[in-house]
Amino acid sequence: MNASSSLFPVFRPCLVLGLLLLGLTGLRAQEAPQGAAIPDKDSEVHPPDAVISGTAQPPASSMAWWYRTPATKFWEGVPIATGRFGAMLYGRVRDEIIPFNDETLWTGQPYNAVNPKALSSLPEIRRLIAEEKFGEAAELATHLISHPVPVVQTYQAMGRLHLRFDGHEAVQDYRRELDMDSAIARVVYRIGDARFTREAFASYPDQVVVVRLTCDRPGQLTFNTLLSSLHASAVTRTLGADTLLIEGGVSEPNPEIPSRMRWQGRLRVLAEGGTVRAVRDGQNLALRVEKADSVTLILAGATNYVNWNDLTADPDARCADYLRGATARSFGTLRDRHLADYQPLFRACRLDLGRTPEANDDTTTRMDRIRAGAADPHYTAQYFQYGRYLLIADSRPGTMAFNNHNIWLDDLKGRWRGRWTLNINIQECYWPAETTGLQSTVESLLSFIQDLAASGARTARGVYGARGWTAHHGTDVWMNTAMTDRVFHGMAPMMGVWLTQHLWEHYLFDPNPDYLRRIYPLLKGASEFALDMLVEEPTHKWLVPSPSGSPENGFVLVNGRALLHDGKPKPPEGVRNSITMGVAMDNQLLRDVFTQTLLAATELGVDAPLQSELRAALPRLAPHQVRADGTLMEWLKPWKEFDPKHRHVSHLYAFYPSNQITRRGTPALAEAVRKSLVIRDDPAGWTGAWRVNLQARLGEAEECYRVLRHLQTSISKHPAPEDSDRVPSMEGNQAIQGITAGIVEMLLQSHAGEIELLPALPKAWPRGSIQGLRARGGYGVDLAWSGGRLASATLRASRDGTCRLRTAQLVTLTHDGRPVALRTIEPGVVEFTTTAGAVYAVTPQS
Question: Which long-range contacts (C-beta less than 8 Å, at least 24 apart) are formed by 448-451?
């Protein structure tokens, strides 16, 4: 991820002020502009909330994050989402704020990002690279950058739901929570003898956010509710006495790519007892509820987005349909439908690391204790599940791929413009999908890659004169697949290849030929592009891609020429450069995608000419290389790193998530990985999460745990004002999911042609269990351990075959109580024949 923000435009206050002043004219009784009432998020200060006293009791759920105070900044809130439509709940008492967003609300419109200067410049760029005139090559490579603007478009927040309660100035026993087991957010407090409860959930089946307000005393609910937006164009209308509508366009259209995006939000208020009527709340239209017993609010939102090349949908009709369908059902039915959809996914995998009495404390107190050195294994189990919760919330069939920078957003700029970052971030978000029972979430990634490939074929032709498809380091909702931002960060044309590895992993976990047929065109296109990018490296005659760059890392140039690694500090006149040929990661990616495409084409019996191309190219790809200091080389030559401790470890892709390098299969290369990690020792954010997975593959349990302990209470790697150290950090979400994946790698590995149990179990987890893991080859796995050693395991086979099992202890296997014949491969490694549907019990020998 690019830590620099210099290329990203700031909110334009003069433009917005002018639009706001225009919006203040012409107010009608049932229509009001909303942009005037709401400031830019960066300058916003919320009014004081209620006075809180008393001591709240912990919630009943063991899978709840809970707090004794409302959120004071955005990312202290509680995130919920339907996969497409998300919200963040502050949990404020008197003036609740619930920002809501649609994943497709972006500036711009469909556009072709191919730079007209690109294709004619490519031969000269390649010549300069071959002659190692990297400075000149980088300058000319600016002709490859996205056109007509060098950046992706911007994701923008949609609106906010406000609840303003009468008489809630002082409350007792306040508690807010996110129950991850039910995906329901709650706020509970007392005023005197009356107990108020606020529940909210985002329903995937009904595609709405539902908020339920109750009190255990009748007639106690009196409040105003209204909708607002940061967008100056937003206008609110009432539809009858119980419905609000807000709609508008985006707030930052740029002249090069003018926006055609439209959006709408609707709120329906259903009260039991009392009354509901339309009123004015200051300059805003609102609905007023008086003396109700309970109230259900149903919130919907939509845009005119159909796909990356189509903006012909009707947001009005979409919102009306969502609201009509949801309001036809009772609150109980909506809740039951939500739970029936969500809980089978969340409960598919359960981790138990033990529980101490301190686990009953509020989440912030527990985080402070962990920072002070205390152990809280249940917190780690909850953190593991938080990664899964977020993936379920924002990646479902029919929605777009998980985005770590947008659906939970409350400004008009976004982090990194809200883009999908393709050079580690989106990949890390999906690392736990297959292993922890969330394989259905990969469906949204598949459809996302299909759209990316459709656009990427245009970029492959127009920029590189190549077959197939490409994508670079970031994209937007319009599937900009060109190089963006600048050459140093953007020169990464093989990121589409990396994305296809997730699709192949899905196949390895469930080898289904119908699925293989679905993904084969994507594999084929990625391979064709890579084949057409190959040039002959002059020294060894290896085939390597050109141009190429190691994501966001660079080597030192002096006077346009690269310096070799010498262990000394870089000279003051040195400048950083990324563009070259055949960086290690690209070579590794090509080795994977060529091999996989060849296997798929052979299995499906198609594309004999392509098979021949791949067979000819594979042995000529550049091999893994080790530098004189014993570290794995990141470039074709041992260039001098501009930043030896750089946060990206892209050249270690071959070790994780790939399996080209393994601890036992290629021990010398694995040692080079270990030595690389000694130097690249950044434990923060998504880098640290990747490190947990790498160290687990090395079998270094205590190092995994050291990094994990730091990560689970740290804030973002790139802190922003909305971040907080009072709640588990979302770190743009991907670090949490990378940690979830890393915990799995500590307990179970299956990448090396065998299932290994407890490969990196730390001393801090002497006993525990996990159910619902998945291993490659179509196996389900449950594990339990005690005293730091395997206590029992269960393997479920989905197909006939042969399973190889590695354990630290000698084991016996039974099926239906009968011994299973084992073939000993080496001490601690056995093979046995599996039958589809059979369940095998693994027991350590005494």
Answer: 448/400, 448/401, 448/420, 449/401, 449/496, 449/499, 449/500, 449/503, 449/522, 450/522, 451/307, 451/308, 451/479
**Considering the chain, what percentage of its residues have pLDDT values greater than 90?**
85
> Is the Cβ–Cβ distance between 767 and 785 less than 8 Å?
yes
Helices assigned H by DSSP within 467-607 = 487-490, 495-509, 513-532, 584-604
Digit-coded pLDDT (tens) for 803-845: 999 999 999 999 999 999 999 999 999 999 999 999 999 999 9
Spatial strand order in the sheet of 748-749: 748-749, 755-757, 801-806, 829-834, 823-826
pLDDT single digits (tens) 139-178: 999 999 999 999 999 999 999 999 999 999 999 999 999 9
The residues, ordered by sequence, that sit 6+ positions from 268 with a Cβ below 8 Å of its Cβ are: 242, 243, 297, 298, 323, 326, 327
Give bridge partners of residue 245 from the DSSP assignment.
237, 266
CA dihedral of 182, 186, 188, 194, whole degrees rounded to 10: -90
Closest CA to 587 of 631, 542, 556, 629: 542
* pLDDT tens string 497-517: 999 999 999 999 999 999 999
DSSP string covering 621-679, please? BPPP-B-TTSPBPSSSS-BPBSSTT-S--GGGTTTTTS-SS-TTTSHHHHHHHHHHHHH
> What is the C-alpha separation between 391 and 385, in angstroms, rounded?
10
Q: What's the distance, CA 63 to chain centroid?
A: 21
The pTM (predicted TM-score) of the whole model is: 0.94
Q: Say if strands 170-179 and 51-53 run parallel, antiparallel, or are unpaired.
A: parallel
Cβ contacts of residue 504 below 8 Å, gap of 6+? 519, 523, 592, 596
